[in-house]
From TrEMBL:
This is Shikimate dehydrogenase. Residues 475-503 form the SDH C-terminal domain. InterPro entries: Aldolase_TIM, Aminoacid_DH-like_N_sf, DHquinase_I, NAD(P)-bd_dom_sf, SDH_C, Shikimate_DH-bd_N, Shikimate_DH_fam, Shikm_DH/Glu-tRNA_Rdtase. Gene3D superfamilies: Aldolase class I (3.20.20.70), Leucine Dehydrogenase, chain A, domain 1 (3.40.50.10860), NAD(P)-binding Rossmann-like Domain (3.40.50.720). CDD domains: DHQase_I, NAD_bind_Shikimate_DH. The lineage of its organism: Eukaryota, Viridiplantae, Streptophyta, Embryophyta, Tracheophyta. Residues 354-414 form the Quinate/shikimate 5-dehydrogenase/glutamyl-tRNA reductase domain. It holds the Pfam family Shikimate_dh_N.
Amino acid sequence: MTLLCVPLVARTVEEMVADAAAAAAAGGDLVEIRLDFIQGFRPREHLPLLLRGCPLPALVTYRPSWEGGQYEGDDTTRFETLRLAMELGVDYVDIELKVADKFMSFISGNKPEKCKLIVSSHNYEYTPSCEDLANLVARIQAIGADIVKVATTAKDIVDVSRMFQVMVHCQVPMIGLVMSEKGLMSRVLAPKFGGYLTFGILNAAKTSASGQPTVEELLNIYHIRHIGPDTKVLGLIANPVKQSKSPILHNKCLQSVGYNAVYLPLLGDNLASFLETYSSPDFSGFSCSLPFKVDAVKCCDEHDPVAKSIGAINTIIRRPDGKLVGYNTDYIGAISAIEDGIGGPRSKDAAISPLAGRLIVVAGAGGAGKAIAYGAKEKGARVVVANRTYEKAASLANAIGGQALRLADLETFRPEEGMILANATSLGMYPNTDGTPISKKALSFYDMVFDAVYAPKVTRLLREGEECGVKVVSGVEMFIRQAIGQFEHFTGGIEAPESLMREIAAKYT
């Protein structure tokens, strides 16, 4: 079982002792005591205080500045401290590869049997090739490490795959982690690829390396105690991706139905490269968001007819034969949310949508804009597409028999009463929450405003719409409805727990 290690980076011994208790209460398996973070550290006075009352097995690290740590002194003092930790019964000691030979000579092989030696290498610039990583692991093994630790940095999410390949072939216990937000997958999937341990922090203020998730996230969102070699990998590939609530929603729903999969936020730069790199059947399904929804069409081998006509995909499923199939669940999610938002008397003929005959202005001509425009046209609406780049607006408008405008033209566009505005741009999305596709003054010409952005739940566009007395529909509705379709694709037809989805969305958006 992959252990969950909580790094302790407090500046005082007293705070570190308190954090060790908090780590145990949170569900950690061991703590990493980072001695280099303690101000005024006095080994013979402080080490016994740290170790004797520690409620969890302890890993002692005294990281020098030349390996990314805080310690500025000489190696002899450091080595003496680590040897003292061994004598006091510590469970693990971490020493850097660069000085591991010197340390082994220093202790003259007198390492307590209980104590495991971790020999570590950190690369804060990039992730080497598979061959170079394998050679590095062999060097660490040859020194006599009980546990190999290699930490690199992801410049691209595909870099993580090289660490996975090396981990599964390592002949001794290995900690293999890739730092930065693009390397998060390495930390969550450590149990799938045989990692000896992974790190989870107590909170965002107590990080010891970039890209570390919290203990709470690892245990209660990603459910790492249940991740194993057979666990399917799902996720949202987007850029940015940090703001998304999809990992919370999908993971809790997957857990509720007992489906063996984990859903990850995947910060990508190139969709085709990602799909080609993570081509194993275990990487079985992905949500696609900005800016990859249109690119996804070219990446898929087959397409759902609706997705193909829209020209944008938000869901990719990898079949057992390796073929990639693209779907668009944005279409149903957005249109049904808008229809319900219009409300009012319904036609006796259920086939007639409340959108029929209405004028809808779609701001944005990307993947979400295409889904809304095609969906609205199919429901009998008259569609206007407004986009910052006029040529893109014209291309989409021509495809559906609509009208094209520049986004700036919306300030004076008011051909009739009762119009509907649908924002399908990223304007207003976290972290740029001040953005809006249209001024408050121009909003007053609409009857209803829908915003596909759901983080934050109440965008500037929706807030100003309400202030103008316009009916508003949050992107949370589209988020839930498109997620229902995705969940059923991901799980091979298991019915999505809609009530749970709504409960989660209400809590986290």
